[in-house]
Amino acid sequence: MADTQAMARKHRILVAAVTALAALPFMDARAQSATQTVHFQVNAVNQIAVSGSPSLAITTATAGSELTSATASGSSYAITTNEANQKITASINQSMPAGVTLEVSLAAPGGASSTGSVALGTASTDVVTGISATASSALPITYRLNASTQVQLAPTARTVTFTIVSGT
What we know:
Shape: elongated
Strand order of the largest sheet: 1-2-8-4-6
Radius of gyration: 37 Å
Strand content: 35-45%
Distance between the termini: 100 Å
Order of helices and strands: HEEEEEEEEE
Number of domains: 1
Number of helices: 1
Structural class: mainly beta
Helix content: 10-25%
């Protein structure tokens, strides 16, 4: 008898569960959706940064020869561009004293070309050409200071400006 009562109770629970489920509203089998248009763009990006604190001093010469140029390495630059045919130009904020030249040479990122060591002036000069989409860092910068034997100069400074521009 206990088995019959247990089975009857299970049957009542099962019927109650089925009835409760039947009372629930049926879900529509069709899915509802919405759409949205997303607008986006990637603008031209041209960034350059320099690091290091170059310092140059001409302190020696070989007897009977011109003064020995001073070289400073240890500076570097990083560049990011997503454009093709870019170049880096360099200039200084004011002219160098008579008989003194400041030269700079930048290593080129992959696929580009360095123009080698170039004398800096107040007009922009190409230092790297043929740059296309790149993200490169720790690219060496080398400075060289030249002076004639007629020059003696107290410590002074020039600000070098590097600019990324179109290579055309």
